[in-house]
Structure formats: structure tokens, C-alpha cells
Automatic annotation (TrEMBL):
<dbReference type="InterPro" id="IPR003593">
    <property type="entry name" value="AAA+_ATPase"/>
</dbReference>
<dbReference type="InterPro" id="IPR047641">
    <property type="entry name" value="ABC_transpr_MalK/UgpC-like"/>
</dbReference>
<dbReference type="GO" id="GO:0005524">
    <property type="term" value="F:ATP binding"/>
</dbReference>
<comment type="similarity">
    <text>Belongs to the ABC transporter superfamily. Carbohydrate uptake transporter-1 (CUT1) (TC 3.A.1.1) family.</text>
</comment>
<dbReference type="InterPro" id="IPR008995">
    <property type="entry name" value="Mo/tungstate-bd_C_term_dom"/>
</dbReference>
<keyword id="KW-1003">Cell membrane</keyword>
<keyword id="KW-0472">Membrane</keyword>
<keyword id="KW-1278">Translocase</keyword>
<comment type="subunit">
    <text>The complex is composed of two ATP-binding proteins (XacJ and XacK), two transmembrane proteins (XacH and XacI) and a solute-binding protein (XacG).</text>
</comment>
<dbReference type="InterPro" id="IPR027417">
    <property type="entry name" value="P-loop_NTPase"/>
</dbReference>
<dbReference type="InterPro" id="IPR012340">
    <property type="entry name" value="NA-bd_OB-fold"/>
</dbReference>
<dbReference type="GO" id="GO:0055052">
    <property type="term" value="C:ATP-binding cassette (ABC) transporter complex, substrate-binding subunit-containing"/>
</dbReference>
<keyword id="KW-0067">ATP-binding</keyword>
<dbReference type="InterPro" id="IPR003439">
    <property type="entry name" value="ABC_transporter-like_ATP-bd"/>
</dbReference>
<keyword id="KW-0813">Transport</keyword>
<dbReference type="InterPro" id="IPR015855">
    <property type="entry name" value="ABC_transpr_MalK-like"/>
</dbReference>
<dbReference type="GO" id="GO:0140359">
    <property type="term" value="F:ABC-type transporter activity"/>
</dbReference>
Length: 366
């Protein structure tokens, strides 16, 4: 086991700055997840650690050892990718044992170790099968077992579950988590799926435009986002953002139509944000309450879309503002409230868990 450190790592491809001055610390045995939208630089960050590409600036360490210019064969790292390839002319046992064959181990040792790791991912009954007789999930487990067989110091995974169906994805997700815990191997995992990241990671590294936006536990990034990007990216469906201005009387003046939120908003945010003339308020969908009749401190709107989620439902509501503008709000509400498209509805803020952001920079304000 080793720690992983990126120090001011940069990777340029011509004009494209794929990774911009990145600093990351992953501790011994930690499960770190690189998360961000497509093209944000996650894969390139991982490839720099794997030795598949060389940073244009900065250094990468495994423990105290500077591996920036070390050949990938000498890094003691194993990788699993989305489009992992199994060797079609070998059966499952030979596929899993292959890294040990390359390392010069005898057949008996290879087969013993292959059985051991196959048991860990529960495919020991498949050892004699040809790989073209496996399901997608079984193939993925063979790939995992093959990556584990050498007991690498560091595990790298790039969207390893992307090609699996939703149900299999969830079961493989928990299997990966349990295995990582049992083996205690330092792991870096790339995904664009925030739910996958939240359930797997001890530490989330959120990237956008090649830059790190925030590093923290799933709780940190959800409850204390550094900026509007992180706040909007984490949580599904996304946080609602409403621009507000204080009037002279220290009540929220902007967004005439939402002045009905005023009494509650004033109490909730006045003390926190009264030094700002204007700011952007972030409210997660579950912090709205919906009423089917006019209710004090609730803003009237019209339901545009309803989406059942089992015990809950999502509603998209258009709130008309006094100045003729309208505001779209997504709320997550219990499904015992009966609403349909085009119904009138009244929304209030149910919880004081709102965030404020600087309109210009997007940074969260205290
Ligand atoms: P995705 O989730 O879509 O895989 P990503 O977050 O992993 O995206 P990267 O693949 O790291 O993003 O790409 C980051 C940026 O670098 C993108 O703008 C991409 O087009 C560019 N890039 C990546 N690899 C190369 C390359 N070999 N040559 C030129 N540009 C590249």
C-alpha cells in the first residue's frame, strides 16, 4: 500500500489544457473518486498516474518515490477500464492468471492465485469457461480479478461499470467497495456519475475545465460545496438557483413573484447574507414543500411536469414573477400529494438548508 501525491500537475495537448495545476493527496488505502463532466480532465489525470502519458509540468509520487518519469511497468499499478479487453483465446483462469505469467510465475502458483481472487469476486465456478460464454457482469469480474491478482500498490479504474445495466452496476459497485475495503489497496476511480462517486468514494475530487473545484468527503461536497459548479453538479436533481437582491428594508426585493417566499427567506437568510446587496440562492429540490391550496409564505406556480419516483415525485413548477419573468423550480415532494400537469400549486421553503453564492465568481458565500 502507498499514498499517491500529485504536485502542480499540468497536461497540455497543444492548445488544450487538459489538466490545470492539479494538487491531489490520496492516503494509503483510501478510495478516491475523480468526478466531473465529460472532457473535464479526469481520464488524463488518471493516465498521468498510470504512466500512459507524461505531465507537461509537475510531479507525481507513489509514497515518497517520484514516478513522474518512471516507466509504467515499474509503477506497481493495476488498471481496469470501461472497455477492458479479455484475451479471447484463453479461458477465465488463464485470463486471470496472465499477469503472473508475464511476471514469470509457474502454472501451479498462477492457478492457485487465480482461484483465490476468483473467489473474492465470486466467479470460482467459471474458471474453466471460455470468456465468450460470459455475461457482461461476469466479464467485468474477470477483469477485476485479473487486475487484483498481482496485489498492486494502487488500483486505477476508469468508468469500469459504464457498460453494465443499471441493476448490475449497483451490485458491482458494492462488490468493488467491499473488495477495496478488504484489500485496503489505494484506489483512484474515474466516473462522471455522481451517485456512483458518492457511494464509492472516501474522498471525492471534483473537476471542471481541467481544474479541481473541490476535494472532500461525500458529505463535505454535498453540504458545503465550494462553489456553484459543485453545488449544481452534486445532488440529483440539481440544486435550484434563484438570484435575489435585498431592498432597503432588508427584505428580499427581487423576483417579485417570489416575494411570497419572503417571510421564510428573510428569516432563513437575512442574518447570513445581509452584507451582500445581491446574491444567488441555492435550494435543493427536497427542501421545498408543496401545497395544493394557497398557503401563507408559499409562492403560486403551475406544474409543468411530474415524474413519479416511487415514494416521492419530482415536479417542475413555473413560478410567475411580478415583473413578467418566470422562474423554473424543481421540487421533490412526497407522492401522497396529488398533482398533475397544469395544476396550480404553492411552494414554500421547508428547510433552512439553503446556500448563497457570489453571482460573479460563483463562490459560496458564508
Ligand atoms: P470523459 O468523461 O468524456 O472521458 P474526461 O473528463 O476523462 O472526459 P479527458 O479525456 O481527460 O476528459 O480530456 C480532457 C481534455 O483533453 C478534453 O478536452 C480532451 O478533448 C483533451 N484530450 C484528451 N486526450 C487528448 C489527446 N490525446 N490529444 C488531444 N487532446 C486530448
Amino acid at each position: 500500500m502507498v499514498s499517491v501525491t500529485y504536485e502542480s500537475v499540468e497536461k497540455r495537448y497543444g492548445e488544450t489544457l487538459a489538466v490545470d495545476n492539479v494538487d491531489i493527496d490520496v492516503e494509503d488505502g483510501e478510495f478516491a473518486v475523480l468526478l466531473g463532466p465529460s472532457g473535464c480532465g479526469k481520464t488524463t489525470t488518471l493516465r498521468c498516474l498510470a504512466g500512459l502519458t507524461t505531465p507537461t509540468a509537475g510531479s507525481i509520487y507513489l509514497g515518497d518515490y517520484d514516478v513522474t518519469d518512471v516507466h509504467l511497468k515499474n509503477r506497481d499499478i493495476a488498471m481496469v477500464f470501461q472497455n477492458f479487453a479479455l484475451y479471447p483465446h484463453m479461458n477465465v483462469q488463464e485470463n486471470i492468471g496472465y499477469p503472473l505469467k508475464v511476471a514469470g510465475q509457474d502454472e501451479k502458483t498462477r492457478n492457485e492465485r487465480a482461484r483465490e481472487v476468483a473467489e473474492m469476486v465470486e466467479i470460482e465456478e467459471l474458471l474453466d469457461r471460455d470468456v465468450d460464454q460470459l455475461s457482461g457482469g461476469q466479464r467485468q469480474r474477470v477483469a477485476l480479478a485479473r487486475a487484483m491478482i498481482r496485489r498492486p500498490s494502487v488500483f486505477l479504474m476508469d468508468e469500469p461499470l459504464a457498460s453494465l445495466d443499471a441493476k448490475l452496476k449497483i451490485s458491482m459497485r458494492s462488490r468493488i467497495k467491499v473488495l477495496q475495503r478488504e484489500l485496503g489497496i489505494t484506489t483512484l476511480y474515474v466516473t462522471h456519475d455522481q451517485e456512483e462517486a458518492m457511494t464509492l468514494g472516501d474522498k471525492l475530487i471534483i473537476m471542471d475545465g481541467g481544474e479541481i473545484q473541490q476535494i472532500g468527503t461525500p458529505d463535505d461536497v454535498y453540504h458545503e460545496p465550494n462553489n456553484q459548479f459543485v453545488a449544481g453538479f452534486i445532488g440529483s436533481p440539481s440544486m435550484n438557483f434563484i438570484d435575489v437582491e435585498w431592498s432597503d428594508e432588508q427584505t428580499i426585493a427581487h423576483s417579485g413573484g417570489i416575494s411570497d417566499f419572503q417571510a421564510e427567506l428573510d428569516q432563513t437568510v437575512a442574518a447570513r447574507y445581509d452584507e451582500y446587496d445581491s446574491f444567488r440562492l441555492g435550494i435543493r429540490p427536497q427542501y421545498f414543500a408543496a401545497h395544493t391550496t394557497p398557503t401563507e409564505n408559499a409562492v403560486p406556480g403551475r406544474v409543468r411536469v411530474t415524474e413519479p419516483l416511487g415514494d416521492e415525485q419530482l415536479i417542475d413548477v413555473v413560478v410567475g414573477l411580478a415583473d413578467g419573468e418566470s422562474l423554473d423550480i424543481t421540487a421533490k415532494i412526497p407522492n401522497n400529494i396529488t398533482v398533475s400537469r397544469n395544476d396550480d400549486i404553492w411552494l414554500s421553503i421547508q428547510d433552512a438548508l439553503v446556500h448563497g453564492f457570489d453571482i460573479e465568481s460563483g463562490d459560496r458565500i458564508e
